[in-house]
What does this fold into?
Amino acid sequence: MSETRISTERLRRVGVLFEDDHVLVVDKPAGLAVHGGADTKGRDLLDVLLGAYDAPPALHLAHRLDRGTSGVLLLAKSADVAATVQGLWPAAKKRYLALARGTIRQPVRAEAPLATKDGRPQAARSDVVPVRVVGAHTLVHVDITTGRYHQIRRHLAGLGHPILMDDKYGDFETNKAWARTIRSTGAPRPKHLALHATRLAIPHPDHGAVVTFESPMPEAWKDWLTEQ
It folds into this structure.
């Protein structure tokens, strides 16, 4: 095994979806922060990944997922590749799965501008498509081309359908009741945001052909999708 390739035997929580000399694509689990910060406890994703190499490359996050969000995450293996990926990012297509409060019967497009942390509005678009109504809630997939701060969480909340277990934009009583319902089935109580990055398609930074990476729905969600 090349020193520049990851040792999957050293990984326990993270799945490797793809790796070559330019990028590493992983299946991030919910509950693991992507990098260290003031609110990070224990090891973060970068720590875990770098520890799985004999000679770690200079990994750079091409984008970020919230601690509670799972799924496809792309990292560049050098600063030059990271810069190239950032130039390609506007062409990327991203799909997420989410479990949203309430019933959504028809596709809807959310285009409300989203403010940055300093209050500056930015254009944003999220295309929400219902997949399945589950009791009082709906499994949806959301396609985005923009990537604003908490975009899907904020757009779904703005539509009146916040993501379940969202402790920032969601509804406390709804989350509490839903978690209690899940536990009543004998399944573990949901601990994290019901949001999963299921697909990323982007031109490859080396040869330019579009490559698509996919992560299946987490196993825990199968309990969540049982009709209540």
Summary: The longest strand covers residues 93-101. DSSP finds five helices and twelve strands in the chain. Residues 115 and 189 are 33 Å apart (CA to CA). Helices lie at 45-50, 79-88, 151-158, 172-184, 220-224.
